[in-house]
Amino acid sequence: MNGLSRRIVLASGIILAVWCGTVGAQGQPEGQLTIAFDASIAPTFLDPAETPGIGTPFVFLYAMHDALIKPLPGNDMAPCLAESWKESPDGLAYEFKLRQGLKFHNGDPFTADDVKFSFQRYKGAAAKLLHDRVKAVEAATIKADPKLRLVKVIPPAAWWLDFPEQWNPKSPWSDRRVRLAATMAVDKQALNEAERLGFSRLTGSIIPSVMEFALRLEPYPYDPTHAKRLLTEAGYPNGFDAGELTPLPPFTTMGEAVANYLAAVGIRTRVRGMERATFMEAWRTRSRQGVYVTVTAAPGNASSRIENFVISTAPYATGGYPDIDDLFRQQAQERDRGKRQALLHQIQRLMHERVMYGGIFEPATLHGIGPRVEEAGVGLSAQLYFTSPWEDMRLKKQ
Fold first, then answer.
1. Does domain 4-133 have CATH number 3.30.200?
2. What gap in Å lies between CA 309 and CA 294, rounded to an integer?
3. Is the peptide bond before 48 cis (omega within 30 degrees of 0)?
4. Sign of the C-alpha dihedral, residues 308, 311, 314, 317?
């Protein structure tokens, strides 16, 4: 599932695991790496459902399958097939959120039912203990459950690509064509389908369209061919190494997907995971580099978003433009509402034309509502993605 073409070769007492490079969207693998491992083998070493409770089988299993969570460098409980999970207060229930858009080697989609099947099929060393201690494994997505209805809310939030190095004249990101290439390399609707079941609103702005004084801007189209042409025009016909790509935690899958899209046109990055507090601190500094894939649902209006993210003195900006700074000062002093809106719209057009950011989508928040709920209170306020006000929640009369 992780994009590698793999072949396992068995010899007497020797395992030769052969990796054939990373497989891109097109073409065949590039080259071959052979790893020799000297060990006495057993058939159970190759089946995760039957593996004994020792470490050796995982030398091979890690090359053959993935897990909900597993040890990775820097994190002994790293998200893999599960992008996140949460524990009940009493520690007796765990809810895993699975990654969207994953497929098995034969093209079948990965679903929650596959996780349940794998659990029930397990008959290895700890099978009795595991099955005795687990009361139930439930997989019911909201859309497939007839007892639940799906409600969406698109609050004042926006996902975007942030290019902190665009103010550095020595960086490739200082060239508008490079920033535009990166923006056009990302299939925003595919991300929408994978991350939010297609319910989000695509955008070319960092300012949500439901905010006061917002200018609705369509995103730049998904066009990898034109993106490669732009990179060639900018002097990077073979692409370039853009360093780290840092997604807002815990949205690792979002960052990985963006990194894959950028790589497809030649912009090579390495996804960097951070704790949220560390990310927020890094976001506020002017020393950050690479690409950030980020989102905010902070309340306010277009003016407050520009003040925090766009002007040269903004806490989340690494630079700015004098003309935008001047327009912002004008709107802050303008008492006529129509004139103020015109100034703010002008700023937003300049942001879009200069590709200061790569807008992706305004994320839909999805809620599953049970049959006993008459009014969930979700979406009553366009500014909030959660139930509000709580007093308006109502159950159906029995």
1. no
2. 12
3. no
4. positive
